[in-house]
């Protein structure tokens, strides 16, 4: 039933770079301010949360701004990374994220730009028992 997710060996350097950036917005080395998050997202970025709700870039930036005013430890474990190029300089990165008892599948569309990596879209889906 599970798909065979094997990253093309030619994409392993991209996979390595993107793994360092996930889960998105939880890597302080890439920034913790609204300006940092604006720089790492495309202007038309949006996401679908694990609840199935859609969130605009502006909403996500507002939430992140509040979250980082009072940061706390967020214990998580990311695994099963897979990367595929879906168009020139556009990559789909998928992985599994365990946060306490919650298990989700994550998908992020990344674009390589002259300014660096930009997030185009993100989705989290809760894994059903």
TrEMBL record:
<dbReference type="InterPro" id="IPR032710">
    <property type="entry name" value="NTF2-like_dom_sf"/>
</dbReference>
<protein>
    <submittedName>
        <fullName>DUF4440 domain-containing protein</fullName>
    </submittedName>
</protein>
């Amino acid at each position: 039933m599970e798909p065979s997710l094997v990253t093309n060996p030619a994409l392993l350097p991209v996979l390595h770079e993107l793994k360092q950036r996930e889960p998105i917005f939880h890597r302080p080395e890439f920034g913790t301010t609204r300006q940092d998050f604006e720089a790492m997202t495309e202007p038309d970025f949006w996401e679908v949360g694990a609840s199935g709700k859609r969130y605009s870039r502006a909403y996500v930036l507002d939430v992140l701004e509040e979250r980082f005013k009072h940061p706390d430890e967020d214990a998580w474990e990311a695994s099963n990374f897979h990367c595929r190029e879906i168009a020139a300089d556009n990559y789909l990165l998928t992985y599994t994220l365990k946060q306490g008892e919650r298990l989700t599948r994550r998908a992020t569309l990344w674009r390589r730009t002259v300014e660096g990596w930009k997030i185009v879209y993100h989705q989290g889906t809760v894994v059903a028992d």
